[in-house]
Amino acid sequence: MQPEDLKFDYEHIWHPYSSMQAPSPVFPVVSAEGVRLRLNDGRELIDGMASWWSAIHGYNHPVLNQAAKAQIDKMAHVMFGGLTHPPAIALAQKLVALTPTALQTVFFSDSGSVSVEVAIKMALQYWHARGKSEKHRLISLRRGYHGDTFAAMSVCDPVTGMHQLFQRNLHAQIFLPEPKTPFGEALWPEDREALENLLAAHHQEAAALILEPIVQGAGGMRFYSASYLGYARQLCDQYDILLIADEIATGFGRTGKLFACEHADITPDILCLGKALTGGYMTLAATLTTQSIAQTLSSGEAGCFMHGPTFMGNPLACAVACASLDLLLQSDWQARIAQLQQGLERGLAPARAYTGVADVRCLGAIGVIELKQAVNLPQLQPKFVEAGVWVRPFGKLVYVMPPYIISDEDLSQLCQTICQVVHDWA
């Protein structure tokens, strides 16, 4: 990669949440292997982000490489309208088998944000088909985050969800206070009352409650009680409100359960999956729901579900996803996630003593250092790179969600380096 390439990047290419006036620094990656990213200048970084939580098996995995190579010689893509193919059928079979029994229908889409759009449209079209079009609003949690497309933005926290600029353009939704009860504790009265009072007040206009089960991700990396999730399911049943679980970040083992809903042993009415679905190889998402919801909305005015992405059910992505799921399930992933949690708790513990640190918390393969002050990303990010690790802080948070295959030695080095940089910074 030549200097003129980076100059072109700087002047012409948008990166996530970037300014074209003063772009944050970007670091050129030329290859990736296992848990290491190799930069253009030869430096190697231990990856603590799993490419925004998706590359659970690490990079350049031979099994996933082979799945992609085998599929691409057959067909990389074919439209899903009026056609089907073995990779999509195989992946749908796996997802139906892995998720709660009631979730029997699968809608494939391109990204997690779109899977949320699909879930919201499913809920709205379901109530329209039942003759209750007045149920047209969503209930969401403060500090929640569900993506960057318009319906998804409308159910993100209107203050911390990064989308305040668009508030006048978004459908007005209903927001619950974020859960206060910590993970592992019985539901606090204030959370119980807030849930019941709001659902009781708005059930006649509420189509669904959408939430990230157990872990609120980009809204603050907050871990909350499974009792909250269980009570939310109970109240949704009581008040005839659908429950949408956004497991895009938490699905496929990240919290120590295959799906975070399992911590409360509940079944959502609609489930959103993405990120780790293909092991970080291809963009793909899925929205699952029940036969009852699928049949009801299909019997409505439109006679079908009104959505159909061009790259829906992409064969290449589906084939890699099948291989990724097999790779995960054939491993002792539960023991590995437990081991990662122990390593993160041990490795990040020193940060609790730093004066600039407000909290350190870990759950499954998630480790979080919460600072007392927001970080300056353009200043802090290069310090991690110089120290040989890749993490991407935001707000007051320095957090890691490493690939599951990271060795104990690399995890220890990752945590030690993060603690040192945070110590020097804070």
Automatic annotation (TrEMBL):
<keyword id="KW-0949">S-adenosyl-L-methionine</keyword>
<feature type="modified residue" description="N6-(pyridoxal phosphate)lysine">
    <location>
        <position position="275"/>
    </location>
</feature>
<feature type="binding site">
    <location>
        <position position="52"/>
    </location>
    <ligand>
        <name>substrate</name>
    </ligand>
</feature>
<feature type="binding site">
    <location>
        <position position="145"/>
    </location>
    <ligand>
        <name>substrate</name>
    </ligand>
</feature>
<comment type="pathway">
    <text>Cofactor biosynthesis; biotin biosynthesis; 7,8-diaminononanoate from 8-amino-7-oxononanoate (SAM route): step 1/1.</text>
</comment>
<protein>
    <recommendedName>
        <fullName>Adenosylmethionine-8-amino-7-oxononanoate aminotransferase</fullName>
        <ecNumber>2.6.1.62</ecNumber>
    </recommendedName>
</protein>
<feature type="binding site">
    <location>
        <position position="275"/>
    </location>
    <ligand>
        <name>substrate</name>
    </ligand>
</feature>
<dbReference type="Pfam" id="PF00202">
    <property type="entry name" value="Aminotran_3"/>
</dbReference>
<feature type="binding site">
    <location>
        <begin position="112"/>
        <end position="113"/>
    </location>
    <ligand>
        <name>pyridoxal 5'-phosphate</name>
    </ligand>
</feature>
<keyword id="KW-0663">Pyridoxal phosphate</keyword>
<comment type="function">
    <text>Catalyzes the transfer of the alpha-amino group from S-adenosyl-L-methionine (SAM) to 7-keto-8-aminopelargonic acid (KAPA) to form 7,8-diaminopelargonic acid (DAPA). It is the only aminotransferase known to utilize SAM as an amino donor.</text>
</comment>
<dbReference type="InterPro" id="IPR015421">
    <property type="entry name" value="PyrdxlP-dep_Trfase_major"/>
</dbReference>
<dbReference type="InterPro" id="IPR015422">
    <property type="entry name" value="PyrdxlP-dep_Trfase_small"/>
</dbReference>
<keyword id="KW-0032">Aminotransferase</keyword>
<feature type="binding site">
    <location>
        <position position="246"/>
    </location>
    <ligand>
        <name>pyridoxal 5'-phosphate</name>
    </ligand>
</feature>
<keyword id="KW-0093">Biotin biosynthesis</keyword>
<dbReference type="InterPro" id="IPR015424">
    <property type="entry name" value="PyrdxlP-dep_Trfase"/>
</dbReference>
<feature type="binding site">
    <location>
        <position position="392"/>
    </location>
    <ligand>
        <name>substrate</name>
    </ligand>
</feature>
<keyword id="KW-0963">Cytoplasm</keyword>
<comment type="similarity">
    <text>Belongs to the class-III pyridoxal-phosphate-dependent aminotransferase family. BioA subfamily.</text>
</comment>
<dbReference type="GO" id="GO:0030170">
    <property type="term" value="F:pyridoxal phosphate binding"/>
</dbReference>
<feature type="binding site">
    <location>
        <position position="308"/>
    </location>
    <ligand>
        <name>substrate</name>
    </ligand>
</feature>
<dbReference type="GO" id="GO:0005737">
    <property type="term" value="C:cytoplasm"/>
</dbReference>
<comment type="subunit">
    <text>Homodimer.</text>
</comment>
<dbReference type="GO" id="GO:0004015">
    <property type="term" value="F:adenosylmethionine-8-amino-7-oxononanoate transaminase activity"/>
</dbReference>
<feature type="binding site">
    <location>
        <begin position="309"/>
        <end position="310"/>
    </location>
    <ligand>
        <name>pyridoxal 5'-phosphate</name>
    </ligand>
</feature>
<dbReference type="InterPro" id="IPR049704">
    <property type="entry name" value="Aminotrans_3_PPA_site"/>
</dbReference>
<dbReference type="InterPro" id="IPR005815">
    <property type="entry name" value="BioA"/>
</dbReference>
<dbReference type="InterPro" id="IPR005814">
    <property type="entry name" value="Aminotrans_3"/>
</dbReference>
<keyword id="KW-0808">Transferase</keyword>
<feature type="site" description="Participates in the substrate recognition with KAPA and in a stacking interaction with the adenine ring of SAM">
    <location>
        <position position="17"/>
    </location>
</feature>
<dbReference type="GO" id="GO:0009102">
    <property type="term" value="P:biotin biosynthetic process"/>
</dbReference>
